[in-house]
Amino acid sequence: MSDDLAVLQSDPPAGDRVAAGETVGFDVVRRALVEACPGIRVADIRRLDAGYTSRQWVADTDEGPLLVKTPIRDMDPEHPRRLIAATRRAAEGGVPVVRFRAFLSRSTALDAPLLVQEYQDGTPADEAWEAMDPTRRVRFATDLGQLVGRVHSCSGAWFGDVLGAERYPDVRTFLRALVDSQLAEAPEDLTSVGRDGLSAALHHAIDAARPDVRPSLVHGDLWRQNLVLRDGRIACLLDFEHGRYADRFLDFGKLDEHVFGDFPEGRAAFLDAYHQVCALPDDWEDRVRLGHAVHSLSMSVYFLRWTPKWAPQYVRELEEWLATGRDGAPLDAGAWSGRAGVGEPSPTPGSEVPVNADRTRDHDERRHLHRRTG
Q1: Is the dihedral of CA 228, 231, 234, 237 positive or negative?
Q2: Could you give the CA distance from residue 363 to residue 315 in angstroms, rounded to a whole number?
């Protein structure tokens, strides 16, 4: 398959349209694929169960198996363009990723952006995980450390969007904009110190961060569902949908939750392998703690919008972070409420929903939301 990407920038003439809530027939997918890849011969098409953010199909073609992907929620064509750019930047750093075949800013058949890429055959790491013995899990953690180190070794000239549409000159400016955008979507009573108190705490931690941090490519969605295995080893890293130039330790929020939350003994092997590729600085633990807080904020806002029953665990994590200083030492319980000018603690959103303290069940329950999509 060629690495060249066919991109149609202009809008094609109107044709058969498919609304967001409708089922898409295979004949429509076939037309969309031929539109994106003129002359291609399609033998068969099957649908993938790929979650709620996109529709996906695998097409058997004369060029080999291809993944056909169109969004459901975010119809902005800049979104897949950023995914393509971040994936290709990772490839430049030696990261095994998918190659793209074609991209349409708007498919006539689907009336939505369309992305065509190679289909990565193999076993998603989350499906293989239960069958792995401790030795193979440690080897997986080691491989993952090397892989993430290669991703983070890909530097950028600015913080923000890989395409450069949003650029920030330094890490503090970037982090302030990031948390402010999340807080703007959060309810005022998100935490016991309110939204303003949480904002004050996050900005305090950001102001204490080193100003000379270099922008690194981050994946933004590092968990086992986005890793394809072949012969037990990592063969491909999928889905740079949230890729950007940022503080590299933002990636540790999802890693520590979804990979090492139920396998803490693998974290040392991961860190050793990571350090060999991308050295850990003296302040890495402080930056990881801040990365955890940003992750918990992001997930709280996301799940309050889409699946409220999963939000409380992330709100609790924010409360735990608020109760400690930047270095992990205990804080005065009223420190942030005083800064924000709030009074009595407010109820935690969704606290009436029972949440299992064992995250493993939640991880298994959420597994259907994200599949091997690239």
Answers
A1: negative
A2: 17
pLDDT tens profile 148-200: 999 999 999 999 999 999 999 999 999 999 999 999 999 999 999 999 999 99
What span, in angstroms and rounded, lies between the C-alpha atoms of 230 and 241?
23
Could you report the per-residue pLDDT of 101-119, keeping only the tens digit for each? 999 999 999 999 999 999 9
CB atoms within 10 A of CB 213: 20
d(CA 257, CA 253): 6
Pair of tokens at residue 48? 């993938």
In one-letter notation, the amino acid at residue 60 is D
Confidence of residue 13 (pLDDT cuts 50, 70, 90): very low
Question: What does the H/E/C string look like for the chain?
Answer: CCCCCEEECCCCCCCCCCCCCCCCCHHHHHHHHHHHCCCCCEEEEEEECCCCCEEEEEEEECCEEEEEEEECCCCCCHHHHHHHHHHHHHHHCCCCCCCEEEEEEEECCCCEEEEEEECCCCEEHHHHHHHCCHHHHHHHHHHHHHHHHHHHCCECCCEECCCCCCEECCHHHHHHHHHHHHHCCCCCCCCCCHHHHHHHHHHHHHHCCCCCCCCEEECCCCCHHHEEEECCEEEEECCCCCCEEECHHHHHHHHHHHHCCCCHHHHHHHHHHHHHHCCCCCCHHHHHHHHHHHHHHHHHHHHHHHCHHHHHHHHHHHHHHHCECCCCCECCCCHHHHHHCCCCCCCCCCCCCCCCCCHHHHHHHHHHHCCCCC
Surface-to-core class of residue 319, CB atoms within 10 Å of its CB (0-12 exposed, 13-18 middle, 19+ buried): middle
Rounded CA gap, 80 and 71, in Å?
Answer: 9
Residue 167 in contact with residue 160, Cβ under 8 Å? yes
